[in-house]
Specification:
Layout lengths: L2 H18 L6 E13 L2 E4 L4 E3 L4 E10 L4 E2 L16 E13 L4 E3 L4 E7 L6 E9 L6 E11 L5 E11 L2 H13 L9
Parallel strand pairs: 3-11
Antiparallel strand pairs: 1-2, 1-4, 4-9, 5-6, 6-7, 6-8, 6-10, 10-11
Length: 191
């Protein structure tokens, strides 16, 4: 076998591996509501999951994803531009962050976003971020923030749920933030 044939065969095998290796095992091992995100595993989680009713609370959803598929990158990106020829693999995911009442009724439903990452090598880890806002219209009570990630090439779906509380008592919200700070979470200084 010649060197060019071996290289071509290696590319075909790598593409086949990329298509089949992660399919069906999509997972979200970690998701957090954060004040800031600096990179993979580098985030400042919100000090408490108790929020004051009648106020909007801007946050960043941080989501670690595993088991996604790596498909061969196409010649053009979804935006219509040419890809760098070095970018041989693409990961395409959709991210949806919704808020549900404790009874399972949808209370907030923004449009899902699609994320497409390309790289020279097969990706094994990935994190997603999305700016969200706990809306001011939520009434007092318990809610669940549901993070859903869909692997578009394979159709795989993974979820992670974060419990939050909406309170009308500023003292409860402040006490929850102080408790979070004592547990090693960063505090947020109001501007």
């Amino acid at each position: 076998i010649t060197a060019p044939d071996a290289a071509a065969m290696a590319t075909v095998l790598a593409d086949l591996h990329a298509r089949t290796s992660a399919s069906g095992r999509l997972s979200v091992p970690r998701a957090a509501l954060c004040d800031s995100v600096a990179g993979y595993g580098r985030y400042t989680e919100a000090p408490a999951m108790t929020f004051l009713a009648g106020r909007a609370h801007p946050l960043v959803a941080y989501v670690e994803v595993e088991g996604f598929s790596n498909a061969p990158a196409t010649a053009t990106s979804s935006e219509g531009g040419l890809l760098n020829p070095e970018e041989r693999y693409a990961v395409e995911l959709s991210l949806d962050v919704d808020i549900f009442t404790a009874d399972g009724e949808k209370a907030w439903d923004p449009t899902p976003v699609t994320i497409r990452e390309t790289s020279r090598n097969i990706r094994r880890d990935l994190f997603l971020v999305r700016r969200i806002e706990i809306p001011r219209h939520l009434s007092m009570g318990a809610y669940n923030v549901k993070v859903q990630v869909r692997d578009l090439p394979s159709g795989g779906l993974a979820e992670h749920t974060i419990a939050i509380q909406i309170t009308g008592d500023p003292r409860v919200s402040q006490k929850a933030a102080e408790t979070g700070a004592r547990q090693g979470r960063a505090t947020v200084t109001p501007e």
